[in-house]
Amino acid sequence: MSDTPMQVLTRPFAIEPVTNIMMPDGIFDNALYHLRIAAHITNMSGTALTNVTVYLESVGDPGIVPVARTFFFASIPAGAAMLVMWDANFEHAAPGKRLVSFVAKADGHTPRRSIQQIFVSQTRFDSTSNTYTCAIEEGTLTLSKPQGHLPGKGWGTSDGKQCRCPPWPGPVIPTGFTLAWAPNPAYAGTHGELPFSDPWWKVLAIIIAIIAALVAIIAAALGSGQASFSAGGEFEETDPSVHCCSPEGAASGAPEYTVAGVASAIASGAIAVACSDAADPFWRGQEATPPAAGELTLGERVVAQWVLPEAPNAGRPYTADVKWQYERFTSGGNYQHGVSETQVNIHVAGPVETDTPAVVQAFEPLWLRASFRRDNDDLFRGNELYAFALFQAPQGLYFVQPLVDDGLGFDPGANDGVYAASLNLKEAYRLLLKYGQQVYGTWRAFVFAQDVNLSKPGTPPEIAAQHIGGMFVASAIELTFDDSLPCPLKAQASIVVV
């Protein structure tokens, strides 16, 4: 028999389970003990496969402890990419690149193993100096003097009407910082080794920003002790303040923390825009300051500040007017280079197109289909997105469901650009009863999507670094600098259950 024609073709990525969001560029950080190892495994054959099992065989670091789970699929269409994920404990994970092995087995075939790398970082906070460090094998990035737009005093309210928000102050939109890179080891020549030989240094800065937010959110949701460092970092406030609100009336808190995580991820994405996807300030600074022959670069620093004319939001080409100064410290002297420019968010998308039934009989499944278009009007397809939907019951309870383009369930076809989510009302009803709520009435649906880093193994580092995953391209929540605007959480669809 031949090997099962299923493989994990792209790098697995990290999902934070309280908020359900993908970590920046899918990187795992051991500051958060509990993360999910998510991957798309693809049927590479031209025919459907039957009775398929998929499991995670091993991780190349004993400090990473996954929970055993086997996925079963009665049938997988030709070409379909299935989203699978495993809970894992990363408390004792070592920073660096680690191999992960997946095994798939289908009827009529022998088991087949897929091996991919994951990236692990280690972020810590020093309360005495108000500095964050992110350590990896190639060196350590230290973030100090953070600046940002802080949430307004009316966070979570709209026109005097209180929105239900978690006990969390709201997202900070970064507008500046000082980044210091200590390479390991010191290097000769113009360019040092890229982090993980893949992303720009700015991705580590985004990791620091989102972890600072997530630790606060997780502590609010689950209590203290869920992360390995304090989240007590302070930002120097820059005007204007940020306003927004969370889902109203939810009896269960978890989806509220999903919205909190989405808002923080969108806010932190401003770093990616200000520091450019094409080449970040470290790479461009290195290019402009080649050291003399025989000199070793011992350290580097970037001081950056930017102005956002409008609040950052998912999928929109918002701009950042940025100034940054790069400095290289070598064994023979110091070099400097400065830039003033305007950068534009390139992770853009068109409006979300949704399709749902207008009316559903009680205890039949709810379903939603969504399409996401790029700025050139092409559709995102298959494994190009990590997406999910929130279904809100008539009296406020929320349910998080994955949106997938795998040709199963209510999805009309694999890789056709239509992503589908569904909710089993019979199972949901048990939780509704627990909170004294009914299944009958108008349900609302909110849709969210992040792009996925699809860089293939072996891509030259300076090319791979230009492809960043984990940026929100669609969101039902918006950030604003104008507190007079109505609550910017907008349902993309509604369904009446009778």
Provide the fold topology:
Layout: E1 6-8, E2 13-15, E3 28-29, E4 34-43, E5 49-59, E6 65-66, E7 70-76, E8 81-89, E9 96-105, E10 112-126, E11 131-136, E12 139-149, E13 157-158, E14 161-162, E15 173-183, E16 187-188, H1 201-222, E17 236-237, H2 254-274, H3 281-288, E18 296-307, E19 319-330, E20 334-344, E21 353-355, E22 359-360, E23 366-371, E24 385-392, E25 398-403, E26 419-423, H4 425-434, E27 441-451, H5 461-464, E28 472-474, E29 493-497
Helix pairs in contact: 1-2
What does this protein structure show overall?
This protein is mainly β. The protein has five helices and 29 strands. The chain has helices at residues 201-222, 254-274, 281-288, 425-434, 461-464, and strands at 6-8, 13-15, 28-29, 34-43, 49-59, 65-66, 70-76, 81-89, 96-105, 112-126, 131-136, 139-149, 157-158, 161-162, 173-183, 187-188, 236-237, 296-307, 319-330, 334-344, 353-355, 359-360, 366-371, 385-392, 398-403, 419-423, 441-451, 472-474, 493-497. The strands form five sheets. Strands 3, 5, 7, 9, 10, 11, 12, 15, 16, 17, 18, 19 and 20 form a 13-stranded mixed beta sheet that branches. Strands 22, 24, 25, 27, 28 and 29 form a six-stranded mixed beta sheet that branches. Strand 11 (131-136) and strand 12 form a beta hairpin. Helix 1 packs antiparallel against helix 2 (254-274). It is globular. The relative contact order is 0.15. Residues 158-164 and 247-253 have low confidence and may be disordered.
